[in-house]
C-alpha cells in the first residue's frame, strides 16, 4: 500500500479546492439560500405539512442531496479530467500507484469537498427553518456514503469525457433530472400510482428517502433498501473503474 | 556488465493500426547514458512510454533492475524518473508543492532537505513559491526535471530534454546529467540533436520506423563508420588539379586554395604519404594541413535514409 501517494493525491486535490474556496463554497450556499426563500418561505407557507413535517423543513434533506450529488459528480469528474486535459496525468499513471490508491486519493478529495458543502448548507438551513435531526449519526453516514458513491460516478465521467462539453453534459442531462424527480421537493406518495412505481427505478429516490429518514424518522422507502441501494451503486461504480484501469480505457493507449 | 533495463520483443500497434514499435530488443547497462536517436515518429517516445507504464505494450516484456514492469510494477516504477517531452504542469500550483507531490506519489516520505537540494541544483530554489503559470518555458522544463528527480530515481528518462531550450539551460542540463551519471544513475535520453548525443552518451541507439537499427558504443560507432577528411591548404590558388593527382579523388574547395582528401582510417594504407609526395612533385607548396572526423550526424543521416 502506497500511503504516501494516497496522501499526496488527496492533499494536492484539496489544495485545488482551497485555492478556489470562494467559488467552491459561496455559490452552492447562495443558490440553496434562494431555494429556501422561494420553496421554503414563499411557497412553503401555503403548503400543508407532509407526514407531520412543515414543508420548509421537509425540503432541507432534498436540497442538501441536490447540491451534494451535483457537487460530487462535478468535483470528481473535473478532478480527474483536468490532469488528463493538461497532461499531468502522466505522473500518477507512471507512479507506483494502484488504481485503488488513485481512487482513494481523487474520489476521497472530491467527496470531502462535497461533504463540507453539504454540512455548510445544513448549517445555513438552520437560519431559515426550525430543524431537528432524529438520527444525527445516520445523517452523517448517509451524507458521506452519498458523497463517495457519486464522486465515484463523477470519476468515471471524468475519465470517459473527451472534452469539456461532455464533462458538463452528463450532470446536466442525467443527474439534474434524476435529482428533481427523486423526491427532493415532495414525498413520492404524492405521485400518481404509476409514477410511484416508475420512481423506484431512480437511484436518487433511495438516497433522498434515507437521508430524510435520518432527519424526520419518516421515509418513502425502507431505510435498509436505501443503504443497500447506495452500497450497490458504489460497488457498481468501483467495478466499472477497475475495468477502466485494467484496460487503460481513455487513459493509456 | 550489469543490466538495468531489459527490453525483449517489445511491440506496439496502436488502435489505428499504426505500428509504432516492432519487436524491439534492447539492453541498457547500469550507470550508462544511452542516447536514442531517430527522426520524428520513429518510436522513441512510444518505447519510453511503455517502459514507464504510460502505454500498454502489444507484445513483449520489459524489466527494470530485474522487476517486470507489469507484474512487479511498484518495484519497477519506484526506480524510474521520467521527464516528458511535453511540458505538463498544474498551472496554479507552487513549484515546491508540485515537486513534493511527485515525491509522495512515488511512495517516498517527505524530505525537505532533499527537495531543497534538488531545487537548488536546478536553480529553482528562489522560485519555489511561484505559481507555475508565472514561470518561463525554460523554468517549467526545470520543474519537470525536479519532479522526476524528487524520488531519487535510479533510472532517468529524458524525452527530448533540450528541444526548444536556450543554450544556458542546455548546458545546465548536460551538467546535471553528468552529475547524475557520477552518482550511478542510468540515463536514457531521446534527442534530435546529434550534438547532444555526441557530448553525453556512452552508447547510441538509432531508431527508425519502430525498429532499432543499431546500438553501439559511441566512440566505436564514430570510429567504425567515420571517414576522415584531410584538408590541404596551398600557397597558391588552383583552377584545375593536374592529371597526375586524379587517382586520389581530390575535391577542390570553393576558395580554390585548398584541396580535400577523404580516407578511411581503418584501411591498410591511407594514401596520405603518397598524396603529399605527389602534390610536392606537381609543384604545389603547402601552407597547412588539417584533419577532421565525420560527425555522428553524418553517420545518422546515412543510417536512416531509406
Summarize, please.
With 253 residues, chain A is mostly helical. Chain A contains 10 helices and no strands.
Features:
heterodimer, A: about 250 residues, mainly alpha, about 75% helix, B: alpha/beta, Alpha-Beta Plaits, 2 domains, 6-stranded mixed sheet, 4-stranded antiparallel sheet, 10 helices, elongated
Describe this entry's structure for a reader.
The complex is a heterodimer of chains A (253) and B (306). Chain A is built from 10 helices and no strands. With 253 residues, chain A is mainly α. Chain A has one domain. In chain A, α1 (3-19) packs parallel to α5, α3 packs antiparallel against α5 and α6 (136-160) runs antiparallel to α9. The longest helix of chain A is centred in the first third of the chain and has 32 residues, at 55-86. Chain A is globular, with a radius of gyration of 19 Å. The model of chain A has no long low-confidence stretch (mean pLDDT 88). Chain B has 306 residues and is of the alpha/beta class. Chain B folds into 2 domains: 3-223, Rossmann fold, CATH 3.40.50; 227-304, Alpha-Beta Plaits, CATH 3.30.70. In chain B, 32% of the residues lie in helices and 28% in strands. Chain B has 10 helices and 14 strands. Chain B has helices spanning 44-52, 73-78, 95-105, 112-121, 137-149, 167-182, 194-200, 218-225, 272-281, 296-304, and strands at 3-13, 19-29, 33-37, 59-64, 67-68, 80-83, 155-159, 186-191, 203-208, 211-217, 228-234, 251-252, 258-263, 286-293. In chain B, the strands form 3 sheets. In chain B, strands 6-7-8-3-9-10 form a 6-stranded mixed β-sheet, with helices on both faces. In chain B, β4 (59-64) and β5 (67-68) form a beta hairpin. In chain B, α3 (95-105) packs parallel to α5. The mean pLDDT of chain B is 89. At the A-B interface, α1 and α4 of A face α2 and α3 of B.
Amino acid at each position: 500500500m502506497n500511503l504516501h501517494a494516497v496522501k499526496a493525491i488527496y492533499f494536492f486535490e484539496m489544495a485545488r479546492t482551497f485555492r478556489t474556496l470562494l467559488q467552491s463554497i459561496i455559490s452552492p450556499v447562495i443558490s440553496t439560500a434562494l431555494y429556501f426563500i422561494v420553496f421554503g418561505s414563499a411557497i412553503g407557507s401555503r403548503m400543508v405539512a407532509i407526514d407531520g413535517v412543515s414543508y420548509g423543513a421537509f425540503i432541507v434533506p432534498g436540497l442538501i442531496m441536490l447540491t451534494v450529488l451535483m457537487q460530487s459528480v462535478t468535483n470528481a469528474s473535473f478532478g480527474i479530467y483536468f490532469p488528463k486535459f493538461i497532461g499531468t496525468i502522466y505522473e500518477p499513471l507512471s507512479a507506483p500507484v494502484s488504481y485503488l490508491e488513485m481512487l482513494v486519493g481523487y474520489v476521497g478529495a472530491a467527496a470531502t469537498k462535497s461533504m463540507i458543502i453539504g454540512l455548510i448548507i445544513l448549517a445555513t438551513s438552520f437560519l431559515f427553518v426550525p430543524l431537528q435531526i432524529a438520527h444525527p449519526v445516520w445523517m452523517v453516514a448517509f451524507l458521506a456514503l452519498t458523497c463517495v458513491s457519486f464522486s465515484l460516478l463523477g470519476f468515471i465521467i471524468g475519465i470517459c469525457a473527451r472534452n469539456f462539453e461532455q464533462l458538463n453534459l452528463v450532470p446536466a442531462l442525467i443527474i439534474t433530472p434524476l435529482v428533481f424527480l427523486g423526491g427532493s421537493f415532495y414525498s413520492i406518495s404524492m405521485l400518481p400510482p404509476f409514477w410511484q412505481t416508475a420512481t423506484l427505478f431512480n437511484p436518487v429516490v433511495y438516497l433522498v428517502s434515507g437521508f430524510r429518514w435520518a432527519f424526520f424518522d419518516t421515509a418513502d422507502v425502507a431505510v435498509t433498501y436505501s443503504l443497500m441501494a447506495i452500497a450497490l451503486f458504489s460497488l457498481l461504480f468501483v467495478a466499472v473503474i477497475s475495468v477502466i484501469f485494467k484496460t487503460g480505457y481513455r487513459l493509456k493507449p | 556488465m550489469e543490466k538495468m533495463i531489459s527490453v525483449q520483443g517489445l511491440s506496439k500497434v496502436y488502435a489505428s493500426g499504426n505500428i509504432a514499435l516492432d519487436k524491439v530488443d534492447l539492453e541498457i547497462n547500469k550507470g550508462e547514458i544511452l542516447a536514442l536517436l531517430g527522426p520524428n515518429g520513429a518510436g522513441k517516445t512510444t518505447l519510453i512510454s511503455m517502459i514507464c507504464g504510460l502505454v500498454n505494450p502489444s507484445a513483449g516484456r520489459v524489466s527494470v533492475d530485474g522487476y517486470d514492469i507489469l507484474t512487479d510494477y511498484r518495484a519497477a516504477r519506484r526506480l524510474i524518473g521520467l521527464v516528458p517531452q511535453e511540458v505538463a504542469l498544474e498551472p496554479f500550483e507552487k513549484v515546491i508543492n508540485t515537486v513534493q507531490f511527485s515525491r509522495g506519489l512515488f511512495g517516498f516520505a517527505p524530505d525537505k532537505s532533499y527537495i531543497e537540494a534538488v531545487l537548488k541544483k536546478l536553480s529553482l530554489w528562489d522560485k519555489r513559491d511561484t505559481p507555475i503559470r508565472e514561470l518561463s518555458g525554460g523554468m517549467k522544463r526545470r520543474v519537470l526535471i525536479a519532479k522526476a528527480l524528487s524520488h531519487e530515481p535510479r533510472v532517468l528518462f529524458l524525452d527530448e530534454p533540450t528541444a526548444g531550450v536556450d543554450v544556458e539551460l542546455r548546458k545546465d542540463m548536460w551538467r546535471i546529467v553528468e552529475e547524475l551519471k557520477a552518482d550511478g544513475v542510468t540515463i536514457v535520453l531521446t534527442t534530435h540533436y546529434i550534438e547532444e548525443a555526441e557530448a553525453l552518451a556512452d552508447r547510441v541507439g538509432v531508431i527508425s520506423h519502430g525498429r532499432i537499427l543499431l546500438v553501439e558504443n559511441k566512440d566505436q560507432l564514430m570510429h567504425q563508420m567515420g571517414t576522415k577528411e584531410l584538408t590541404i591548404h596551398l600557397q597558391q590558388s588552383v583552377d584545375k588539379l593536374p592529371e597526375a593527382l586524379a587517382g586520389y579523388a581530390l575535391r577542390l574547395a570553393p576558395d580554390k586554395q585548398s584541396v580535400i582528401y577523404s580516407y578511411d582510417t581503418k584501411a591498410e594504407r591511407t594514401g596520405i604519404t603518397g598524396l603529399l609526395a605527389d602534390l610536392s612533385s606537381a609543384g604545389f607548396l603547402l601552407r597547412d594541413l588539417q584533419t577532421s572526423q565525420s560527425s555522428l550526424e553524418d553517420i545518422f543521416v546515412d543510417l536512416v535514409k531509406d
